């Protein structure tokens, strides 16, 4: 066979085909292996959709008959009339935790409106709860099928493995990496970029999901090698997991200690001002372990801004305003959390500088309007008793209009575990307070 060129060519084709098949099988296995349980269900569903497509498309009027004879039919024997061919749009599928996205070629007479008419049939045949059909560009149809509603699903943070323990390592991220906050109702990921964003305000009634949303931010930030965390929380809830590793922490109820921390931040801003001269710039855009981005998170800020000690309260507010209005260009990011976002909690001067807004369920439309002044024109509101825990109205980054956001689920226990990891790598900054005995608590 070695001397036979045809044999050699055949052997090469078989070997290459075999290798291609092996590569494809490897790719499918890797995709399957890396997927979580929900994505695996979607992957199975996507396979069924592809297999049944040739039969389904003509039934739903998404195929066309082409009577043009092929070259063979044209020049071959002409005894029988040529049978029209059935053209079915080519289908590509992409599975994710919510369902399957189908991309198909539009055919003549089978454009967007034909797909929209077939929407209900597709929904039933593909076993979806909802389907959204769009045409992102001429000739391409996208049908997004939802097995699960993104706003109803509880989706664990990608920082956690299937058993709920962290699958991340300290220093894994940098401030320019996107932080996945959650998904909107169409399953579009909502991300935040600490380096390119500014300050933020998070509001919502108690148990509406503020801490879980901010856990994600704190967890990613603590794993960024060019970010330092400063956490202030009079209720201890948000600060406790980060007590050992954050750069500065406070659980004081009186405003004086937090004011001291904010004063240090403001002095740091003054120190950084010199860099503007040497760098011939008016803002810091690049961060490093030596010049880190400072993320300041203050939970239940109303505790300080409405504290009965008027003088202490005013000192706190003065520092807060200085950081809110000037801090961003010096590499400071301020995140304020409050149950009630009213004017007596945060002055308009502070509030207008908090450009990212996340509003979990609030009591009144006025509370919602404090975050979204044009809220009456929106068709969504957070003053809604049916709004589930973990869902908010959010406007972050360069979003044009606010969206409903389902935050990823990162429970506080997981934050403790991430901090255990950091401590194991020698990143402990301080011991837990004297009165805390973790062994006893366990
Ligand atoms: N994204 C989410 N996915 C699933 N469940 C969530 C989510 N967010 C919140 N929850 C549920 O809601 C509960 C309350 O959330 P969280 O502690 O974040 O509320 P909170 O607004 O911070 O309350 P408080 O102001 O009292 O601290 C959580 O224990 C969890 O069970």
Automatic annotation (TrEMBL):
Name by which UniProt lists this protein: FtsK domain-containing protein
FtsK domain residues: 187-369
Record carries keyword ATP-binding: yes
Positions with a binding annotation for ATP: 204-211
InterPro entries: FtsK/SpoIIIE/SftA, FtsK_dom, P-loop_NTPase
Domain of life: Bacteria
Keywords assigned: ATP-binding, Nucleotide-binding
Protein's UniProt keywords contain Magnesium: no
UniProt source species: Streptomyces malaysiense
CDD domains, per the entry: TrwB_TraG_TraD_VirD4
GO MF assignments: ATP binding; DNA binding
Gene3D superfamilies per the UniProt record, alphabetical: P-loop containing nucleotide triphosphate hydrolases (3.40.50.300)
